[in-house]
Structures are given as structure tokens and as C-alpha cells.
Design a protein that fits this description.
Number of helices: 13
Strand order of the largest sheet: 2-1-5-4-3
Oligomer: single chain
Radius of gyration: 42 Å
Strand content: 25-35%
Distance between the termini: 94 Å
Order of helices and strands: HHEEHHEEEHEEHHEEEHHEHEEHEEHHEE
Structural class: alpha+beta
Length: 479
């Protein structure tokens, strides 16, 4: 008898057990009488009722939730006595709750009590949000990128497929056996069957597009539960690789051709120079004129060959660039001295504008080559009596060289086309001395980009052009 009394004292009451369970789980439990007075409130999520444990007991729910019309509306439905079970979603202090209000009725149909249960579903809601966001971005990726994803269940039916590269009717094939789904891709059937046997495999389909497939098994507890596959459209990569290979082949051909041409050209120029230096009475005036033509044509052809060789080196990634700090003022002065003879011959005024004091980070020889091309081009397209000005300035982290003329100008369409190899401005007659080889400007841009810069143009028909060479400014290292 004594032992039973001791056991009875040690055993907690039913309410104690419920309270312990409620305060362990992420729930709030409360009860209301038929008038809405709170009879019970327990749970570690009681901040949902804006009170500490026990403090809301005896208060009317309409007072506690007076600022929450949505909650009160559902509670009033439960208190109305029609047996209505109300549910709603709530947010309190950054937490998500799923709430139920369940009425208990007297024999006469009146409400004896309403039991409320609020379940904290924040973690579950956050997981659902994360899953929804992940699914959204995966859908965006699949719809935007040239990829597709598909799955086959353990019965061999297509259970999921996303991506237009699988075909416009792929959604209509969901639920069909893979033999019916991939009957137009024999490699796909074989790959799925191998994956069903537990093997990873890849294959490529080449029609009008090039598509790589990777297919593998979904394994759980050692058993194959299905098949997952990814398809990637690699057409552009394949074409780019082919274009790169072709460009490298052409670059090697140009380099070989240029090398083979330079040897005889150097001989022609050497002997023409030798003939031009003969005693005056050894060659007639006509013969000297012919020798001069040979020399000029040879030098022009050598310039073309050298430009071709430089372009081929740039395209093949074999151009050597030695970066050093270069003074714009000093270099522009040297280049203008060299171009003064051509300017006088064309009756064009050559002007040295204001120069940047900041040094430029560049290969001096290549920078000189670009300026010579730009200035020579400006002189060529400026009529007699015109003007060509060369200036440089600092602009942020760059130094910009401006070569401006008041010549014939370029149309908007020609302003980008002039940077293509061998392009000739269409308005210039084929016999005009203004027509060059079409290599100077493309080579200048390639050389500038190889040094981390660029060449652009601003122009108007009849008003002239300004070619702008932009290169990184030299940044002195701090001690």
C-alpha cells in the first residue's frame, strides 16, 4: 500500500505530461470557452499570442487578437457553433505558423470549447521556399542555356524532360516508354538500357546540331531506381574550335608565304638600290626611272608582306610584345619628323598637338608602327591644303592618341568596315592613289589590342576623321 502511494506521488499527472510534450515540440496549444475566454495556453511558441505562459489565461481572445482581423475572423467562425474547423497561415516575429481552430459542441449544438493548435512550420516553409527558388532557377537555366535534363523511371518510362534541344514535342512523350520516346535516337536507347544496367555512358548526336549526351543510373540502396540524363548543345563550341583550327592553318600559311616572299624581295630591293647608286653616265634617265619604280614597288610589296606576317602572328598568338614605359611626347615627335616628307609631298600641314605627360605602357616599336599607319592614312585621305593633327591625353587609366584630319571622312557604315582586312572604301576609284592594301588599319587595331588597348574612329563625310589609339597608362610601382 505504501509502495503504491509512493508510485502515485512520483507519477506526473496527465496535464503535466501534455505540458512537457507541448513545451518540447514547436507548437502552441490553447483552449477557449464558448465566449472566447482563454482557458489554456501552452507552448514554447507562445509569442504567437503575444504573451508569456499563463499570462493570457482569463483574457478574451478578441482582446488578445484585436489587431489581427484575419485570425479573429477564423476564430469567430469556430465560435459560431456551426461545427466549422478553421485553418490559416500566420507569421509572428519572423516565424511561420499553421493554425487550426476546432470547436467542441454541447448536446444542444452550442459551442462548449474551441481548441487552438499553432504549429511552427518555419523550417519546413523555408525548405519549401529554397526548393521553390532552386527549382525556379534550374528551370531558368534549362530554358536559357543550350542544355536539357531528362529522367527515366524504373519501369522505363520518361518521367521528366526539360529543354528545347530534346525536341518541341518532348513534353508529349512524358509517361511513355523510352523505346517510344527515343525511337529517333538509336544511341539514346542503347545509353538508357546501359544505364538501367548500372553503367554510365556518353554519346554524341550529329545532325544539323552537335549535341553531347551523358546518361547514368540513379542508385539507391544498391539498386537502380531510374536513369538521369543531361544533353548539351555544343554546336557553337565545335564550330569555334573548327574556326580556330582554320585560322591557325591560315596563319601558318601566311607566315610561310611571307617568309618565302621576303627573301626574293630583299634581293630585288638590294639590286635596285645598287643600280640607283651607279654613276650618272652609266644609266640613262629612263633606266633610272625604271629602277626607281622597281625600288618603290618592291618596298610597297615588302610592306604588304610584313603586314601580312604581323597579322598572321597576332592571329596565331605568336606576336611578341615587350612592354616598357614610353613617353608620348618623344615618340610622337620622332614619328612626325619621319612623316614630314610625305606630308610636304602631299601638301598637307602636319601639326604636333598637346601631348600627355603620363607615360604609356606599350611596345615602343609596335606603338610607332601604329602611329605611322594612322598618320600615313590621314595624310593620304586629306586633300592638298588640308591639316593633320596628332595629340595625346590622359583619360583615367589610359593614354589616348588622337590622329585627326579634315579630309574626306567616312560614312557610318564604313567606320567599322575599314578595320577589316583588304577592305576598300567604295567611293574611292580603283585607280586612285588613295587606295591602299587594306591592311594598315586592321593591323593597327590588332597590334593595339595585343597591347591591351584598341583603335576606334569618329568621322563625318566631308568633315574629316579622328582615329583614337587607346593604351594603358604606365603605373609606377610604389616602393
Amino acid at each position: 500500500m505504501l509502495a503504491e502511494r509512493k508510485r502515485s506521488r512520483r507519477a506526473p499527472g496527465l496535464s503535466d505530461l501534455l505540458r512537457a510534450v507541448v513545451n518540447t515540440l514547436p507548437v502552441v496549444v490553447y483552449a477557449l470557452d464558448g465566449d472566447g475566454t482563454i482557458l489554456l495556453s501552452e507552448g514554447r511558441g507562445l509569442e504567437a499570442m503575444r504573451s508569456a505562459p499563463g499570462e493570457s489565461v482569463g483574457r478574451n481572445i478578441r482582446e488578445v487578437f484585436k489587431d489581427e482581423p484575419e485570425s479573429l475572423n477564423h476564430i469567430e467562425l469556430a465560435l459560431a457553433g456551426d461545427g466549422h474547423n478553421a485553418q490559416l497561415q500566420l507569421q509572428r516575429n519572423g516565424r511561420d505558423y499553421h493554425v487550426w481552430y476546432v470547436p467542441s459542441l454541447n448536446p444542444d449544438g452550442s459551442v462548449r470549447m474551441v481548441t487552438g493548435l499553432a504549429l511552427d512550420v518555419t523550417e519546413a516553409a523555408e525548405s519549401r521556399r529554397q526548393l521553390r527558388d532552386l527549382t525556379y532557377w534550374l528551370d531558368r537555366l534549362v530554358d536559357t542555356l543550350p542544355i536539357a535534363i531528362f529522367a527515366v523511371d524504373r519501369e522505363g518510362r520518361l518521367s521528366m524532360a526539360r529543354g528545347s534541344i530534346l525536341g518541341a514535342d518532348i513534353s508529349e512523350r512524358i509517361g511513355r516508354l523510352v523505346e517510344e520516346t527515343y525511337d529517333y535516337i538509336p544511341q539514346g536507347l542503347d545509353a538508357v538500357r546501359r544505364a538501367q544496367a548500372g553503367e554510365d555512358c556518353t554519346f554524341t548526336v550529329s545532325n544539323d546540331r552537335e549535341v553531347d549526351f551523358a546518361v547514368g543510373p540513379i542508385i539507391e540502396d544498391g539498386d537502380v531506381q531510374g536513369v538521369i540524363g543531361v544533353a548539351i548543345d555544343v554546336t557553337e563550341q565545335v564550330r569555334a574550335a573548327a574556326a580556330r583550327t582554320e585560322a591557325e592553318r591560315q596563319a601558318r600559311f601566311l607566315a610561310l608565304m611571307s617568309h618565302e616572299l621576303r627573301t626574293p624581295l630583299n634581293s630585288i630591293l638590294g639590286f635596285s638600290q645598287l643600280l640607283a647608286n651607279q654613276e650618272p653616265d652609266q644609266l640613262t634617265r629612263r633606266q633610272l626611272r625604271y629602277v626607281s619604280h622597281i625600288k618603290d614597288s618592291g618596298e610597297h610589296l615588302l610592306t604588304v608582306v610584313n603586314d601580312l606576317l604581323d597579322i598572321s602572328r597576332v592571329r596565331a598568338g605568336q606576336l611578341r610584345v615587350d612592354f616598357l614605359p614610353v613617353s608620348p611626347a618623344a615618340l610622337v615627335g620622332d614619328v612626325l619628323d619621319q612623316m614630314s616628307v610625305q606630308a610636304r609631298a602631299e601638301e598637307v600641314e602636319l601639326v604636333r598637338g598637346r601631348q600627355a605627360r603620363t607615360q604609356v605602357n606599350a611596345d615602343r616599336g609596335r606603338l610607332r608602327q601604329i602611329l605611322l599607319n594612322l598618320i600615313s592614312n590621314a595624310i593620304k585621305f586629306t586633300p592638298a591644303g588640308g591639316r593633320v593633327e596628332v595629340r595625346s591625353l590622359r583619360a583615367g587609366d589610359e593614354v589616348r592618341f588622337h590622329v585627326s584630319d579634315n579630309g574626306i571622312g567616312l560614312s557610318p557604315a564604313d567606320q567599322e568596315l575599314v578595320f577589316r582586312e583588304f577592305y576598300q572604301v567604295p567611293d574611292v576609284p580603283a585607280t586612285s592613289p588613295l587606295r591602299g592594301t587594306g591592311l594598315g588599319l586592321p593591323l593597327s587595331r590588332e597590334l593595339a589590342r595585343a597591347m591591351g588597348g584598341d583603335v576606334t574612329v569618329q568621322s563625318r563625310i566631308g568633315e574629316g576623321s579622328t582615329f583614337i589609339l587607346s593604351l594603358p597608362a604606365h603605373q609606377p610601382q610604389e616602393d
